[in-house]
Amino acid sequence: MAGLISDYTGGRATTCCAMLILAAPMLFLYNYVGQNGLGTSIAMLIICGALVNGPYALITTAVSADLGTHESLQGNAKALSTVTAIIDGTGSVGAALGPLLAGLISSSGWDNVFYMLISADVLACLLLSRVVFKEIRGWCGCYTRKRGSITIF
């Protein structure tokens, strides 16, 4: 679903950010309604999993390919593998630290674990915000160009 939306809109970062923005309240909701029954828990896990895994799949595949084939790299094939390895390695570090933090935080209550996950979503959105604004400006035709010494938006 994330791939289809990003291909249709041309905004990979915007798609990721939108899904992460939706994931934060879903995690909050799951914390409170997830224990109401097995069916509710399964449904919330599917929704939260889709909203978190969609951006992950986009970032590790399409975004890394976009970055690796950027014109500033001048067709360097090694650059694509380097960019992909950096993104994948960073994701692996996050995948290792997340459960470690969850284990440490869970002793103070599971609510705090969910707050940590929500904070991670918000942080990811903040880190993507620069690229999102650039994509939105591109859609609006608000390209930045210089005329003399004045920057026009």
What features would you describe in this structure?
Helix 1 (about 1-10) runs antiparallel to helix 2. This protein starts with a helix and ends with a strand. It is built from 5 helices and 2 strands, in the order αααααββ. It is globular, with a radius of gyration of 19 Å. It has about 150 residues and is mainly alpha-helical. About 20% of the residues are buried.
Number of strands: 2
End-to-end Cα distance, whole Å, is 33 Å
As residue ranges, the low-confidence spans are 149-153
Number of helices: 5
Summarize the helix and strand pattern as letters: HHHHHEE
Structural class: mainly alpha
**Average of per-residue pLDDT values:** 83
Strand content: under 5%
| Percent range of helical residues | over 70%
Radius of gyration in whole Å, from Cα? 19 Å
What overall geometry do the principal axes of the alpha carbons give? Answer: globular
Describe the strand arrangement of the main beta sheet, using strand numbers.
Answer: 1-2
The largest sheet is:
2 strands, antiparallel
List keywords for this structure.
single chain, 153 residues, two-stranded antiparallel sheet, 5 helices, 2 strands, 80% helix
